[in-house]
Amino acid sequence: MFPDCAKQFKEVKSHASGEETEKSITEMLIEELKQREEEATEAQQQADVKLLEAKKLASQYQKEADKCSSGMDTCEEAREKSAESLLGQRKLTALWEERARELGWKPGNVNLHRNQ
Questions:
Q1: Residue 80 domain boundaries
Q2: What is the SS3 assignment for 24-77?
Q3: 53 part of a folded domain
Q4: Inter-CA distances, 54 with 50, 60, 61, 65, 69, Å
Q5: Distance between CA atoms of 65 and 111, rounded to whole angstroms?
Q6: pLDDT block averages, 10 residues each, the chain of length 116
Q7: How many folded domains does the chain comprise?
Q8: Residue 96 domain flag
Q9: Global pTM?
Q10: 29 within a domain of the structure (yes/no)
Q11: Is residue 4 part of a domain?
């Protein structure tokens, strides 16, 4: 009777030990899953922060690009006005030169009138 008892005790102990091991493995897996979930959450938060920073930088670059584009437009308008003004001055110069030639002026003939 005692040998059977010892044999049954070993089986119960072995069975209990197996349950504890299984429970321990399950707890370890649950803990590992929690840890991985925390790491994934942290990685996602860092990615969100980096994305927000990238959006802010993109917005700043877009503002600078808009300023530059506006400046280029202003510069182009000024260039066009200058070109128009230069063309007007050339026409006026040609008109005065034509009148001067009609009055006897020749290129290279500079005759200054002085008031005395």
A1: 19-100
A2: HHHHHHHHHHHHHHHHHHHHHHHHHHHHHHHHHHHHHHHHHHHHHHHHHHHHHH
A3: yes
A4: 6, 10, 10, 16, 22
A5: 55
A6: 57 62 89 97 98 98 96 96 97 96 86 55
A7: 1
A8: yes
A9: 0.48
A10: yes
A11: no
